[in-house]
Structures are given as structure tokens and as C-alpha cells.
Amino acid sequence: MAGENSSVTIEPEKERLLNQHKEKHFTAGDIVRDIIIGVSDGLTVPFALAAGLSGANASSSIVITAGIAEVAAGAISMGLGGYLAAKSEADHYARELKREQEEIISVPDTEAAEVAEILAEYGVEPHEYAPVVNALRKRPQAWLDFMMKFELGLEKPDPRRALQSAFNIAIAYIMGGLVPLLPYMFIPRAKDAVVASVVITIAALLIFGYAKGYFTGNKPVKSALQTALIGAIASAAAFGIAKVVHP
């Protein structure tokens, strides 16, 4: 936006129009992705574990102990995975940025030709994109930003993203993981607690699936049913296997 960057020059009329028009795009995609990853695994894995232990005739105290241990280990593991994924993304961007900088210096004509090719793919005619190419060649940083975004399809990552992702996923996993364990904290008999756990967790999966579909632009009802079905299959499989192994 023009008002956000004082180095950008724009016609007063266009600036007025931009200031009047406030677009309401959803911009918290990374946070939502982290929450989806954490909660979906947090609801499903401890749910399956609790169901499996219940099928093996374990007591509620054992289910709680094993469940909390799994939630702690899962949160650390998932958080670390989120950190490494975001860190790898940042490292990849840094490597490509350095490579693109070197190419702009060493083979500027080739890079300029690539700019022309990119613009031509959008239907821009040679006589129209020539001034744009020349303008970018006079602005190395803008040229570099253009190549990173339109040639490589890379956006500059937030330097805090790795730690934020780790924290978001870990907390989301803990929140999701505690849901199927709650009944075992109040019902001594695991056979009784597992029924309440199934009801509560399926309800949570439906709510979570609906919210996931809503925020990701998919059909909320379909997303809710798919999410609940996956959790139900996982827990049923764990319970059945436990019954077979430990009748």
C-alpha cells in the first residue's frame, strides 16, 4: 500500500482510491496452519492411545499417566518439527536470495531477459514491458525482490517464524491432546471413561473439522465429517488391536 511505504510514488488519485478501499483478506494463514497441525494430531493420537489402553483393560490412572506422557512427548516432537520446517524454509530463501543477487551482478542481461519473459507470460507486449525491465535494472533491490517473488515464487519468511511455529504447534497439540484424556480424570473405570472419551473427542473433532474447513475455504460440514471419521477410525483400530493382543 502506498501509505505503508514512503519510498513508493503513486498518483494522488490512485492513492486516494487505495486508502478508501480496505480489503479484508485473511492473513493469518501460517498461524491457522500451525493450529490445524497441532490440534488434529493432538486430538487423534492421544485419543487412539487412550482407546487402545482401555481395550487392553488398563485402569484410568494408567491411561492418564501414559496419555500425559504422550501429550508431552508429542508436543515437543511436533513443535520441533514445526521449528525445523520453518527454519529450513528460511535457509532455503537465504540461499536462493544470495544466488539471485550473484546472478543479477554477473549476468544482468540474462536476468533482464527473464523479467521480460515473466511479464510476457501475463500477456504484456514487448513495447509495454521494456520500460518496466529498464526501471527494475535501475533499482537492484526491487529487481531482486521481483525475481524472488515472480521467478522463484518465494516470499521473504518472518525471521521469528520458526520459534512461533514451534510454540503454536506445541500448544495446539497439548490443547487437543488433553480433550480425550479428560473423562479418565473423573471416571475411575477405563471401560466407562472410554465411552465418554469417544463422545467428547468425536464432538471436538467435528467442531475442529468444521472450523478448519471454514478458515481454509473448504466445505465446513464435509471437513467436519472427514476429521471426525479419521479420529474414529484411528481410535477404533487401536481399541480393536488392543483387544486382539490383550483379550
Automatic annotation (TrEMBL):
Belongs to the CCC1 family. The chain crosses the membrane at residues 166-187, 193-211, 223-242. This is Vacuolar iron transporter. The keyword Protein biosynthesis does not apply. The keyword Transcription regulation does not apply. It is found in: Vacuole membrane. Its main location: membrane. It catalyses: Fe(2+)(in) = Fe(2+)(out). InterPro entries: Ccc1_fam. Homodimer. It comes from the Eukaryota. The cytoplasmic metal binding domain (MBD) is located between transmembrane 2 (TM2) and transmembrane 3 (TM3). Keywords: Ion transport, Iron, Iron transport, Membrane, Metal-binding, Transmembrane, Transmembrane helix, Transport, Vacuole. Vacuolar Fe(2+) uptake transporter. It is a multi-pass membrane protein.
